[in-house]
Amino acid sequence: MNTTRHRYLISNLQHAPNVTMTIVHTLDKPDTASYRYCTGRVTVELDYPETSSGSTTQVRKFPFDGKWFPLDQRSFEMHVGDFILPPELCRQGIGTLCWSEIRRTLPLPSSCPFFLSGGLSDKDATITGKILGREQTIDNIARRDAFWRRMLDPATPTFISDKNGEGSFRGLFVDPVAHPSYVPKAIATTI
């Protein structure tokens, strides 16, 4: 097993407090000469300030813990269970930066196709909490679906989402930061 950590300071261009993101990759590669049988695990930790009742405290959240595995001799897939950021971190571009950095730092050759698959649930059909500094509830289905679609190659996706937010997706990963519609809301700097 080989573990690498990548730490970033995420500076928000919308004047929200900075966030620290740590991506940890664990690689299990039985054959050092080949990626054919390797598997891996990715965890993401986010440290951010939370303000309630006028005081600010540091909070650590663990929004993602996933595994990837080989599909064949040259391609890999990661199944996404829950990737639901806390309301305080929504609509700030953090999820997009997180996935861009997850793929960029994966201990796999960039030439290896990388597929994402996952389930969609009504659990995040709406989000309630302090979003962009205001207590609110937002309808999240369209936002969430657009988020995942930006990360899938338009030539390969399977994407199903019903009116309640239930569904699934699978497709070849493309870096969301490279998407033509991407407008930076935050910047990640290695620390």
Molecular structure report:
By secondary structure, this protein is mainly beta. The protein has one domain (2-190). The chain contains two helices and eleven strands. The strands form two sheets. It has a nine-stranded mixed β-sheet with strand order 9-10-6-5-4-3-2-1-11, covered by helices on one side.
Task: Give the percentage of residues in beta strands.
Answer: over 45%
The secondary structure category is mainly beta
Total count of helical runs of at least 4 residues: 2
Order of helices and strands: EEEEEHEEEHEEE
List descriptors.
12% helix, two-stranded antiparallel sheet, 191 residues, 9-stranded mixed beta sheet, 11 strands, mainly beta
In short:
This protein has 191 residues and is mainly beta.
Write the layout of secondary structure elements.
Blueprint: E1 2-12, E2 19-28, E3 39-52, E4 55-70, E5 76-80, H1 94-105, E6 114-120, E7 126-131, E8 134-139, H2 141-150, E9 158-161, E10 167-172, E11 186-190
Parallel strand pairs: 5-6
Antiparallel strand pairs: 1-2, 1-11, 2-3, 3-4, 4-5, 6-10, 7-8, 9-10
